[in-house]
Amino acid sequence: MDNGAARTAQPVIVAIDGPSGTGKSSTSKAVAAQLGLSYLDTGAQYRAITWWMVTNGIDIDDPTAIAAVAGKPEIVSGTDPAQPTITVDGVDVSGPIRTQEVTAKVSAVSAVPEVRARITELQRSLAAAAENGIVVEGRDIGTTVLPDADLKIFLTASAEARAARRSGELKGSDLHSTREALIKRDAADSSRKTSPLAKADDAVEVDTTDLTLPQVIECVVTLVEEKRAGK
Ligand SMILES: Nc1ncnc2c1ncn2[C@@H]1O[C@H](COP(=O)(O)OP(=O)(O)OP(=O)(O)O)[C@@H](O)[C@H]1O
Ligand SMILES: Nc1ccn([C@@H]2O[C@H](COP(=O)(O)O)[C@@H](O)[C@H]2O)c(=O)n1
């Protein structure tokens, strides 16, 4: 029996993908917080396994060596959008995974199929455990990790806008080298064989080049609400 009063919103699964610096993390976190959903930063998971490889002296240029140890580190992600956490073997790595060294090496590690299989399994189990639903952001969420997501969004922005945003974060970095580095990482992520960075056929594309962050958040919240309302 449905008396209406006890009816609650169904859990909703939102996949947000796109190239580096398009605003995936900032947008996903804010949308999840506003709508009472969990939040998962899948890039942080690939950064965490890369940090472990570097720390343990694994040769990043040797995919066989990476594959052989891909199952070793225990990676745990906290999915509260107000305080996302990431640990490797119990160590908080939220700072160390953001170093330039990890950023430069993460695409090589994330291209290894055994790494992707391991991390994809983690992502699917976290999404399945999210009682109210979840916003999951990355590169292959709509295409591979959660192909049945209720809503898929693909964020884009010009390389110039993305470089300017990143340079604003990384004090002292110059715009040109920041732009070149993000173009290089996007090219590597888009051209790998296993689940490359790609827009799902049924994803809504949002170009954020000329939008402020609050405008992007509002746009995505509206899309989720419309989806929930069955529009
Ligand atoms: N629409 C926007 N306008 C201006 N700045 C923005 C906008 N969206 C995000 N930013 C800023 O750009 C920077 C990068 O955003 P964010 O980390 O969310 O991008 P991302 O797509 O998750 O990047 P990456 O994939 O490299 O982790 C942040 O400093 C963020 O505050
Ligand atoms: N679904 C994903 C998410 C990320 N990656 C790889 O991780 C790198 C870091 O991602 P950030 O979002 O933290 O910048 C990214 O460059 C990819 O190599 C991925 O493969 N799949």
Structure, explained:
Residues 14-225 form the Cytidylate kinase domain. Its EC number is 2.7.4.25. There is one protein chain. The chain is of the alpha/beta class and 231 residues long. It has one domain (12-225): P-loop containing nucleotide triphosphate hydrolases (Rossmann fold, 3-Layer(aba) Sandwich), CATH 3.40.50.300. It contains 9 helices and 8 strands. The chain has a 5-stranded parallel β-sheet with strand order 2-6-1-7-8, with helices on both faces. α1 (24-35) packs across α9 and α2 (42-55) crosses α5 (113-129). The longest helix is centred in the middle third of the chain and has 17 residues, at 113-129. The radius of gyration is 18 Å and the shape is globular. It starts with 11 loop residues before the first strand and ends with a helix. Mean pLDDT is 94; it is low at 1-7. Bound molecules: adenosine-5'-triphosphate (ATP) and ligand L45E5XJ5.
Helix content: 40-55%
CATH architecture: 3-Layer(aba) Sandwich
The CATH class label is: Alpha Beta
* Broad structural category: alpha/beta
| Distinct small molecules | adenosine-5'-triphosphate, ligand L45E5XJ5
Quote the CATH topology. Rossmann fold
Beta strand %: 15-25%
Largest sheet: 5 strands, parallel
Mean pLDDT over the full residue set = 94
Number of helices: 9
**Alpha carbon gap, first and last residue:** 25 Å
Q: Please provide the ordered H/E string of secondary-structure elements.
A: EHEHHEEEHHEHEHHEH
- DSSP strand tally: 8
Shape: globular
Number of domains: 1
